[in-house]
Write a structure and sequence with these properties.
Elements: H1 3-68, H2 70-76, H3 84-101, H4 111-133, H5 140-153, H6 157-172
Helix pairs in contact: 1-6, 3-4, 3-5, 4-5, 4-6
């Protein structure tokens, strides 16, 4: 085989190699697009199923925050005795029970929303504890009065968390 035959062979093979490379590139692109389309359709179907669950979780978080708002909590949970310590324990136990009832909702809400909800719960508990330490507080009814008076000056901790939830849900649409 001489050089002319080799060059002639290369010229006859070159178009096949170019067509093969182009075909490989297009098939590769086509397969990647198909995989992306399948992933998108799967995610769309999953979103269709999880959206109501997420919305329900936000509803439950809003309900939790409404239920632990001191003004509503104090009217719903009445003291069983005149002891302020017993009433404080009852209020905190009620808040913790409500929170534990909604623990599973953290799967469906954002991490930031869950953190803000926890912060609102802890701030409400701190508000009750602080009112119990107050010198003016000597009975369970006085504890209720001190907590409600404290809320006249500033909003309840759950209000900020509730506003955040409303904003986050409005962004879901």
């Amino acid at each position: 085989m001489d050089i002319d035959n080799l060059i002639e062979l290369l010229f006859s093979i070159a178009p096949a190699l170019v067509v093969g490379a182009i075909a490989y590139y297009f098939f590769k692109q086509h397969i990647e697009n198909e995989n992306s389309r399948r992933r998108f359709l799967l995610q769309k179907d999953l979103q269709k199923e999880t959206f109501p669950l997420r919305l329900q979780a936000y509803e439950r978080m809003a309900l939790f925050l409404e239920r632990i708002a001191p003004s509503k909590l104090l009217t719903r949970v009445h003291p069983t005795s005149s002891s302020k310590e017993d009433y404080e324990s009852l209020l905190i136990a009620t808040i913790e029970q409500e929170f534990e009832h909604n623990l599973s909702q953290q799967i469906y809400v954002s991490d930031q929303c869950w953190s803000i909800t926890q912060a609102a719960k802890n701030a409400t508990i701190q508000l009750i504890r602080k009112a119990n330490i107050n010198e003016k507080t000597d009975t369970a009814n006085k504890l209720r009065e001190v907590v409600l008076t404290e809320l006249m000056d500033k909003p309840a901790p759950s209000n900020a968390a509730l506003s955040f939830i409303k904003q986050e849900v409005s962004e879901m649409w």
